[in-house]
Every structure is written in structure tokens, then in C-alpha cells.
Amino acid sequence: MKKSKIFWGYLVLALVIYGVGQALISMNVIDLYYQNMLITMCINLMLAVSLHLVIGITGQFSIGHAGFLAVGAYVSAIVTMKLGMPFIVAILAGAIVAMLAGLLVGIPTLRLKGDYLAIATLGFAEIIRIVILNIDYVGGAAGMQVSHMTTWTYAFFTALITVIVISNFTKSRHGRACISIREDEIASDAMGINTTYYKVAAFAIGAFFAGVAGAIFAHNTYIIQPASFGFLKSFDILIFVVLGGLGSLSGSVISAILLTFVSAYLANFPETRMIIYSLVLILVMLYRPTGLMGTKEITDLFKSKKKGGMTHDE
Amino acid sequence: MEWIQQLINGISIGSIYALIALGYTMVYGIIKLINFAHGDVFMVGAFIGFYAIAKWEMNFFAALLLAMMLCAVFGVIIERVAYKRLRNSTRIAALITAIGVSLLIEYTVVFFRGAQLESYPKTIENKTITILGAQIGTHSILILSVSIGLMILLQFIVQKTKIGKAMRAVSHDADAARLMGINVDNTISATFAIGSSLAGAAGVIFGLYYTKIDPFMGVIPGLKAFIAAVLGGIGIIPGAMVGGMLLGVVETVVSALGFSLWRDAAAFIILILILVFKPEGIFGKNAREKV
Known about the structure:
Chain B: Keywords: Amino-acid transport, Cell inner membrane, Cell membrane, Membrane, Transmembrane, Transmembrane helix, Transport. The complex is a heterodimer. Chain A has 12 helices and 2 strands.
């Protein structure tokens, strides 16, 4: 009862944010630059939250998330531009194909652990990029033209759905199974949890929402090129998750929003931006290896200690 | 005869990978860290070599030595500043720090000199000589002989000297080594110094061979060298040499068959196949990893 009330409360809050954004846009209070920034924020938020499920919740260190972003972007672009279907179909198609790619990548690689998994996912993302580079149908290295279809409404609601699905997944028994894998894979295996199943499931869900983000991203830019989905993009997404706190959904959301602001203001100084990013990454890892929020959620700050029982720590 | 030519080209490219892979494999063997910044040490080595030859008019071998020395110092600084504190932290934290260091080096270089390409000066003429009907460039022979010389030197250091013995001991069991009176910190720094100097040498000969260098040149060869290290069995020195040369030959063959755009994908496919089917690598045993 209590929990569902909190849920509806957040949903209303989210709708208010949407309403304010939409009103500001329709009354031309904010110009195209800031409108684009809001949409980019939603895209980054989706990417951060979907990677958070893989790294933060399940503890599988994947650094190839841009590969699924690329799959979502290209598949959705094919659906709208070549097949002439509506945008919503394109989003779904991009997401589903990205999820299939996630399954394809996840089933062989998730047997690996730690460093090897990281390198294998990076390798797969590079293979995806090289494959796209070599397909003439989607324009190869020159890229593919995509018409602008993303609006604040699409971007906001896809991001909202992403957050709701992943937060509810985390709180379900499946989510607890994933957390147990993060904490100790051998122990959770011994408790009868099918670790391979849950790892692959988390990976596929993460890939699904990366695909959604890809569809929104593709239709927000006028041209998509394989070069935008290199491993630097994967590292960008990784920074959101790491800075926010490995295992904190609200942390990922906050850092995605903050870093989008920062990179928008530093857009004219890309080197400076990357120097700051990398310094932040190193300093956070040296002095606060759990990230800014650790595994805590922002809602934990408002809870009184008496109630307890909701921490994600153990 | 053309195949012999391709084979020799492959081996000489592969020996560059092997030189970089040695640094990866030694560092991984000793502190279980994938040093992502290693590819950038290679890049810094190439730039030091470039400035030494083009601006300070040194000859090729002097530039090679200078790049090796400065890269060794650079590697030790990276280790002391960034990695030393992370010895007892999680693997993920160490890996993220390594990625951060790598990005920091790349973009600091871009910040100071821009991202544009630089053409390597031609210090040594590339002549073609014919051996048994195969046309072989003198650069290939030079690269091959420099790499093999360095590898023999490395084997000598690791197997015959005191510091090499310490490195093997630390990679086997750091705590036991410390109890035996080995200075573990210095040994780890020495490993970084040796690995980085090899990467610096690889940078200079890469510049000579490909003639184009830029601040991001280290990323792809770095990843490929890592693949080479995994292919040969990470932590095993001869494995890195064989893995690197094998990778070079495979790439040359893929290019020669007309799939040059797929060359980079071939390396990653090899990586995934080896990780899935034989993660300990060609020379690996199921037992613990060694230097």
C-alpha cells in the first residue's frame, strides 16, 4: 500500500516535469538549443539506467554498451527511412533487435568474469561497428540520413518507461536475484539461483533500453555514422554509471543529467571536456570507488531510520 | 612467393603487437590489471621518437633509446600516481582507473598539440631486397630484428637477473615474496618500466613503418596487443610474442584475401573465440598465471 502510494507520487512528479517542459517548449520559452539538450538528457538517462542494470545491479562489467545503441539507432532508422513505418514501430523494432543482439552477445560472453568480460563486450561492440561500417545499405562510413522525428514527448516518455521498468525489475525477486549475483556469484549459485539466466536476462533488458535510446538518438540527429558509436561512446555511458554510484539508480539518473549539462557547456572545448571527465573518473575511483551515491538511492535520504529494511546495502 | 612476402610482412607487423603485448602481459601477470593506458604509452613513445628525429635531428637508434628511456619513466609515474593506491581495491575500480588514465593521456596530448596527423621523418631508406624470389622491404627486416633483439634482452632480464627473479616471485605470490625480503613495490615499478620501454620502442618502429602518427594511434594497436596477450595466454612472456606474431599474420592474410575493411573485426573475433573456447590461451595452463 505504502509503496504504491510512493510510486504514484513519483509518477505525478514526473508528469509535472513533463508538463512544465512541454509548456515551456510550446510557448517558445526555451529555444531549440535547450530543447535539444533536454532530449539529449533523456537519451543519456536511458543509456545510464540501462547500463546501471548490467553493471550496478548484476555486477557484470560491460563496456560495449554503444554497440547496442548503434543497433537500435540503425534498425530504427531503416524502419522509418527505408520501410516508411511510423516512429513508434521503429522504436520498438530497434529495441527488440538490440535485445536480440544483447542475447547473442550475452550468451557466450557472460560465462567470462571481470576483466575478460569487459574486453569481450568491448570487442563485440567494435565488431558491431565494423559490420555496420561494411554494409552499403546503411551508407557505410558516410552514414545514413535520418529525418528529425524525436520530440520532447517521445524522449521523455521512453525515458520514464525505462526508469519505471528498471526500478521495478530491481525491486522484484528477479532484481534481488541479480543483486545476489553482484554480491557473490558462487553463493547465489549455491542458493539455487540460475545465475546464467539472470545475467543474460539483465544484459538483454539493458540492451533493449539501449536500443530504445538508439532509436530516439537516431531521429534526433540528422545523420548517423558508425563513428559516433565507437568505444568512446561506451566510455561516456560508463562514466555516468560510475560517477553516479555503482548500484544506485537515482545516482545514474543524476549523473546523466549533470554530465549532459557539463558536456553541453564544454561542447566547444572537447579536449577540456575529456580531460575533466577522465580526471573525475580517476579521482572518483581513487578516493570514492563506490561512486558518488554508492548503492544508496536518493529516496533513502528521506526515509527515517526506524522503518529500515529497504537499504540495498546487503 | 607472394605468400612468403605476406608472411614476413605479417610477422613484422605482429612483432610490433608482440612488443606492446609484452607490457600488457607482464603487468597483468604481476598485479592482475589490464593496463588500458599501455596503448597510450606506445603513442607517447611514437611522439618522443618523432620529435627526437624531426626536431632534435637524432638518428633512428638514438631516438629509439630515448623513447624507451622516457617511456619507462612515464610508465613508472603512471603506476606510482594512479595504480599504486588501487592494489587492494576491486578489479572494476582498477579497470575504470586504467580507462581514465588512458583517456587523460590521449586528451592531454590533443590539448597541447592538437589531434592532427604527423608524418614520420624518413630516417632510414626503405629498400626492397629479393630473397629467394620474395620481395622484402628493409624496414620489415629492421623491425623484425629490433623486436627480436628486445625480446631476447627481455628473456635475459626475466630469467637471469636478480630483478627478473623478483618479478617472477612477485607474480607467483606477492605476499610470500614480501616475506622473503623482496621489495614488492620496486619490483612492480620495474615491471612497469620494462613494459613501458618496450611499448615506447614499438611506438618508434610503428612510426617508421606506417609513417603516420596521431594522438589516438595507441587505441587500436593497444587493444590488438591485448588480444595478442590473451591469445598467447596472459601472463606468459613467450605467449605474448607468439600471440602477437600470429595476430599480425592473420591480419595480413585477411587483408591479402581482399577483406581489408574487416581486418580489425578479425582480431576481435579471434579474441572472442579464444575467450569462449580456451580462455587460458595457447600457452596457458589451467594453473595460476605467471609473469
